[in-house]
Specification:
By secondary structure, the protein is mostly beta strands. It contains one helix and ten strands.
């Protein structure tokens, strides 16, 4: 609704805005030849505190695998159109001859260029452990279990 001001030819506009809900909850389940029966759930908020940030918690529970992931994304870092984020995760997977557990985090940075493209970079830090090795497992798998926790650190860049 236009409102007159003290200056001729200038008006203030009063606009009522109603924000739509930005959160979501999803739940699913099914059967996979790799994981057997599974269920999954995610809680996500896409406009945290009205600043455009997004946060989510995801869980995947299967007969042979479990995955938990917490993610946070800031779409506009340090006053620039650069998105940054953090993923923290824990994965557990039962194979026929061993169990593998991975715990880690990934830092994400992305910048748009052009109308429909984005360049991105990731830094990943992860610790892995092989355990519960069966007696008929290969010598390679047994040697991985003997290492205990191993560390992976990597940088990935792409467009």
């Amino acid at each position: 609704m236009p409102v007159e001001t003290e200056q001729p030819g200038i008006m203030n506009l009063h606009v009522k805005v109603k924000e739509k809900l930005t959160g979501s909850i999803s739940v699913g389940g099914g059967y996979s030849s790799d994981d057997g029966l599974f269920t999954s759930a995610q809680i996500m908020q896409r406009n945290l505190f009205g600043k455009g940030e997004s946060v989510s918690i995801r869980a995947y529970l299967g007969q042979a695998a479990q995955r938990y992931i917490f993610s946070f994304t800031e779409p506009w870092m340090f006053g620039y159109p650069v998105a940054g984020g953090l993923d923290v995760y824990n994965w557990l997977r039962d194979y026929d001859q061993f169990t593998q557990e991975s715990v880690g985090f990934r830092l994400r940075v992305g910048k748009p260029f052009g109308l429909h493209s984005r360049v991105f970079a990731y830094y990943t830090f992860e610790q892995d452990r092989v355990s519960d090795v069966s007696s008929d497992a290969s010598s390679y798998i047994r040697s991985q279990a003997d290492l205990g926790w191993t560390t992976l650190s990597s940088v990935t860049v792409g467009a």
